[in-house]
Write a structure and sequence with these properties.
The chain has 17 helices and three strands. The protein is an all-alpha fold. It has a three-stranded antiparallel beta sheet. The model has no long low-confidence stretch (mean pLDDT about 95). Bound molecules: acetyl coenzyme *A (ACO) and oxaloacetate ion (OAA). Pathway: Carbohydrate metabolism; tricarboxylic acid cycle; isocitrate from oxaloacetate: step 1/2.
């Protein structure tokens, strides 16, 4: 066996997958064969969720059944509401949703059943309940009561409803829906690989998704969409952006929302998300964040040859939609539940325990000293 070490598993092909294909050379991303840009313009998030889980887009009847099932599962139990109400008020919403999904795992009637039909039913329940739990925790932290989900609303409309108590204009809902489609799936990214690793041990879907949420929180992964907005707020305006970046370069600091492990010449999702972030700027009548973003992207490319990733336009888009910054990565969770679940189903269907090796660099073997010798 080769002793070559691939730190960070860079370039390692760990398994096969039929869920999505990322082609960095052409900046292309397809879900089950369909370009994600086309899905964004032609489909709703629910259709894409169905596609990821079933391999084909739904017929009208299949979509109606999927929507009805998702809408009927949105309520969370009084027990979970009580637990959420008792969360520390300053808990990060990612910790809140990680804990809530773990709790859902204890309540679910089929938690221990890792058969494919049960996993599919559980995936639907998690997808439906995650927005309710995210919103209840966010509202509880502000001393506000939870809002019951509305089964007559789409997934995206209902997300706004449970967070704010109202559904915004259709352009806003469309921009949000597009972001959900773009965030839904991305191959063997860190959180999905985590979920697959948990699944490979024979553990259940709630465990895999709880672990996926933990991995997504990190600022090198999903947490970057929040970091982007903090960064934009720190920069006084577009005219100050180039000088601000130079000071980051002087300190060799990371610029959040830039760079990607797979894409080296541009993230395939960025043009679509930027288009919808710009639509948000027009709707709200506030172009400053997108102007500052444009300068940052130009200077990063010119000075470092590094392109923005999806988190870069998603951050200001969510801010312009009115979401508090700590809710940005939980929104990513609400979407990525679809991709994680598709991968869990795929992993379990053709499982092999994920267990790599390490190259040992510690002390050479030695004898345990007696207590007296240790002094
Ligand atoms: C949805 C998502 O999860 S997308 C990713 C979101 N994460 C971020 O936006 C965080 C900022 N970006 C990063 O930290 C990195 O680009 C990662 C983690 C995404 C990818 O990391 P890697 O694939 O390991 O990139 P790698 O370290 O090889 O980068 C190559 C070079 O570009 C530099 N670089 C990469 N990204 C950035 C950045 N955002 N800011 C400044 N320099 C960067 C690296 O420091 C490295 O420089 P060096 O060769 O002088 O050491
Ligand atoms: O693919 C990655 O490494 C990170 C990413 O963009 C995603 O998970 O959407």
């Amino acid at each position: 066996m080769s002793e070559e070490i691939r730190r960070g598993l860079v370039g390692v092909i760990a398994d096969e997958s039929a869920v999505s294909k990322v082609v960095p050379e052409t900046n292309s991303l397809t879900y089950r064969g369909y370009p994600v840009q086309e899905l964004c313009e032609a489909c709703a998030f629910e259709e894409v969720a169905f596609l990821l889980w079933n391999g084909e887009l739904p017929t009208k009847a299949e979509l109606a059944a999927f929507r009805a099932e998702e809408a009927s599962q949105r309520a969370i139990s009084p027990a979970l509401h009580r637990v959420i109400a008792d969360f520390p008020k300053d808990a990060h919403p990612m910790d809140a949703i990680r804990t809530a999904v773990s709790f859902l795992g204890m309540e679910d009637p089929e938690t221990a059943d890792v058969s494919e039909p049960a996993t599919r039913r559980k995936a639907m329940r998690i997808l439906a309940k995650v927005p309710t739990a995210i919103a209840a925790a966010a509202r509880a932290a502000k001393g506000l009561p939870p809002i019951d989900p509305d089964p007559s609303l789409t997934f995206a409309e209902n997300f706004f409803h449970v967070v704010f108590g109202k559904v915004p204009a259709k352009e806003v809902v469309k921009s949000f829906d597009v972001s959900l489609i773009l965030y839904a799936e991305h191959g063997f990214n860190a959180s999905t690989f985590t979920a697959r690793t948990v699944t490979s041990t024979g553990a259940d879907l709630h465990g895999a998704i709880t672990a996926g949420i933990a991995a997504l929180k990190g600022p090198l992964h999903g947490g970057a969409n929040e970091a982007v907005m903090h960064m934009l707020k720190e920069i006084p305006g577009p005219e100050a952006a180039a000088a601000w970046l130079e000071s980051r370069f002087d300190h060799k600091a990371l610029v959040m929302g830039f760079g990607h492990r797979v894409y080296k010449s541009g993230d395939s999702r960025v043009p679509t998300m930027t288009k919808y972030a710009n639509i948000m700027a027009e709707v709200v009548g506030d172009r400053r964040w997108m102007e500052t973003s444009r300068v940052l992207a130009e200077v990063m490319l010119e000075r470092k040859n590094i392109h923005p990733n999806l988190d870069f336009p998603a951050g200001p888009a969510y801010f312009l939609m009115g979401f508090d910054i700590p809710l940005f990565t939980p929104i990513f969770v609400a979407s990525r539940v679809t991709g994680w679940s598709a991968h869990v189903i795929e992993q379990a269907a053709n499982n092999r325990l994920i267990r790599p090796l390490s190259h040992y660099i510690g002390k050479a073997q030695r004898s345990v000293p007696s207590a007296a010798e240790r002094g």
